[in-house]
Amino acid sequence: MRKITIFGGSGFVGRYLVQKFAEEEDLIRIAVRNPIAANFLKPLGEVGQISLLQASVLKAESITKVIEGADVVINLVGILYEKGPQTFEAIHVEGARLVAKISAELGIPTLLHMSALGANENSRSHYASTKARGEEAVLKEFPSATIFRPSVIFGPEDAFLNRFAEMALISPFLPLIGGGKTKFQPIYVENVAEAFLKASFMKEAQGKTYELGGPKIYTFKELMNYLLKTIHRKRLLLPVPFGLAKLMSTLTQFFPTPPLTPDQVELLKTDTIVSSQALTAEDLAIFPSSLEALAPLYLNRYVPHGSHRD
Ligand SMILES: NC(=O)c1ccc[n+]([C@@H]2O[C@H](COP(=O)([O-])OP(=O)(O)OC[C@H]3O[C@@H](n4cnc5c(N)ncnc54)[C@H](OP(=O)(O)O)[C@@H]3O)[C@@H](O)[C@H]2O)c1
Questions:
Q1: pLDDT reading at 308 higher than 70
Q2: 173 lies in a domain?
Q3: Tell me: the pLDDT tens digits for 117-166?
Q4: Would 166 be classed as within a structural domain?
Q5: Is the distance from the beta carbon of residue 77 to the nearest atom of ligand 1 less than 6 Å?
Q6: Closest C-alpha to ligand 1, atom 45
């Protein structure tokens, strides 16, 4: 029975990883800032299989406590906007470095680290540049770490299709930032979880970076058209130039949960698709599921009158 520590286990992707590793009968420690709020994860395993421990990737002593004795450490922690001490630099670079450094010092055999497609040191998006510097810091401290770079991830709790579907419930239009030309390769959340699980058993995955994308590439506009068709709603798709989106985002960034920040506008300028020379999900013997097969199952709740009219 392996011991797995997961940072970020309470997030959207995290809960699927917890479930996948629980099916392997691994003992799982989930490192969360607020264990009580993460109690919903316990039923994903057998009694006593999942424990919730208080930790932050910003606090070295808390990291040491939750990874001591682990066979596999997984760091999923990431943020889309900054708040207080939760800055891109602190979470994506320094937090990632600390987890990797302490894992190496404690002789943890396997470290799996979550990054993102589009990670690029030279990006004008701080999300993307800090994700790249985080990868570098992790590999410097723990050269055999496995890095994952997914495109946008879809699934029942995603913050992408759900967010625009919610917007379509109340707005007569959906914005096409930058004209909606940016390309995405959405991957299903369970396929991402499978990638982590498979890599956790594979010596040959150590020190490698995997780019994770689904079977099809879409422009943002194609995704919005697909979404509207799926939820049976007609809305205007309104092109919003990047400059105007940036201006609007200087205001929306101050919302308690910002719908758009200037950094996200920068991020939207770059395609997030798997590059031709990259190792991919297929190299882990995973054949990603299609958006069309799965998204309607959870987008159903946005269809007028609550059910599909086929
Ligand atoms: N979702 C996507 O489409 C997508 C695409 C590409 C890459 N990614 C990457 O995948 C990872 C997971 O994404 P997600 O969508 O699951 O995000 P999420 O739902 O926002 O989850 C983030 C997790 O990080 C934890 N966290 C935040 N600050 C922390 C801290 N200081 N110490 C410890 N834990 C902390 C959160 O826990 P608490 O707040 O409860 O403490 C939560 O469990 C991120 O690194 C993200 O950049 C996601």
A1: no
A2: no
A3: 999 999 999 999 999 999 999 999 999 999 999 999 999 999 999 999 99
A4: no
A5: yes
A6: 78
Number of domains in the chain: 1
Residues 30-52: tens digit of each pLDDT? 999 999 999 999 999 999 999 99
pLDDT range class, residue 307, cuts 50, 70, 90: low
Q: Is residue 116 part of a domain?
A: yes
What pLDDT score does 128 carry? 98
- Kindly state whether residue 94 falls inside one of the protein's structural domains: yes
- Ligand 1 in contact with 8 (CB < 6 A)? yes
Mean confidence (pLDDT) of the chain? 96
Q: Whose CA is nearest to atom 36 of ligand 1?
A: 8
Q: Is 257's pLDDT higher than 90? A: no
Residue 166 Cα to ligand 1 midpoint, Å, equals: 21
Instruction: Identify the pLDDT of residue 305.
Output: 77
CATH number at residue 78: 3.40.50.720
Q: What is the C-alpha to C-alpha distance for residues 56 and 79, in angstroms, rounded to an integer?
A: 13
Closest residue by Cα to atom 33, ligand 1, is: 56
Please give the number of the atom of ligand 1 that sits closest to the Cα of 154.
3
The domain in which residue 91 lies consists of 3-153+187-212+274-288
- pTM higher than the cut 0.90: yes
